[in-house]
Amino acid sequence: MTAAAYENPDLAAAYEDGNRMPEASLRAWADLITCFAPRTPAEAVEIGAGTGMLCDALVRYGRARRVMGVEPSPEMLGRARWLHPDPRIAYVDGDATRVPTEDDAFDLMLISRVIHHVPDRRACAREAARVLRPDGVVVIRTTFRERLDALVYAYWPQALAAARSRFPAKHEVIADFAAEGFTVRADTQLSQPVAASLRQYYERLTARPQSKLAALSDADFAEGLLRLQLAAAAEPADAPPVEERYDVLVLGRP
């Protein structure tokens, strides 16, 4: 995993507020992620921890005893340490192929919304095999190429075109991890509210808090933002909350 997608300090500053979830959604994700661990509270490592939202949720809801948040971006690491300090969380410099810990250290490795940033997934699987205990699991939270259905693509189709070339297919990820001895333990998905309304969703995205938006030209971003603004203005008062769906692939060793 490289820091290139997250090296922009503006993205790091906007990331937390732009990707914040309601507490109920955050707890639902913490519960689902850790339900696959061989024991709870788990000892977990998150690859590409960003600003530490999920690291914090895992310990705050009692789903993890300790968490190592591995992140290659100095800007993201700084925000994580400032926003989510906790003695049970260690935020460290590293990436998917370079986890600064001893062998057999964790019950669970979480790779959330970053598998498409990992240039060598087989090397990532090899590192997972090293740092996980024999009964440990890898939990990959993403949208696979087959189902790129995030709402953001409805307003920024240019981002969808780019995602089709960047996001891996499920079978590709399974094959890369299988080469290092992993098999599929679970293959599921979860949808949860991320914003109370389209208006709130619009307000969050004005700061370009996602790497897919940060990669757009200013003109393309402005055009999509206008589309979203108009849709938000026309939203009825009784509209349901905005939800996001993610695939969840769980891998372990026999």
Overall pLDDT confidence: 95
Largest sheet: 7 strands, mixed
Order of helices and strands: HHEHEHEEHEHHHEHHHE
CATH architecture: 3-Layer(aba) Sandwich
The rounded distance between the terminal residues' Cα atoms is: 26 Å
What characteristic shape results from the CA principal axes? globular
Helix percentage: 40-55%
CATH superfamily: Vaccinia Virus protein VP39
The proportion of residues in beta strands is 15-25%
Strand arrangement, major sheet: 3-2-1-4-5-7-6
Judged by helices, strands and strand pairing, the structural class is alpha/beta
Q: Report the count of strand segments.
A: 7
Task: Count up the domains.
Answer: 1
Oligomer: single chain
CATH topology: Rossmann fold
Q: Radius of gyration from the CA trace? A: 18 Å
Number of helices: 11
Task: Give a concise summary.
By secondary structure, the chain is an alpha/beta fold.
Task: Walk me through this protein's architecture.
The chain is an alpha/beta fold and 254 residues long. It has a single domain, classed as Rossmann fold (3-Layer(aba) Sandwich), CATH 3.40.50.150. The protein is built from eleven helices and seven strands. It has helices at 9-18, 23-35, 53-60, 74-83, 121-131, 152-155, 157-166, 170-178, 198-205, 211-214, 218-233, and strands at residues 42-47, 64-71, 89-93, 106-112, 132-142, 183-195, 242-252. Helix 5 (121-131) packs across helix 8.
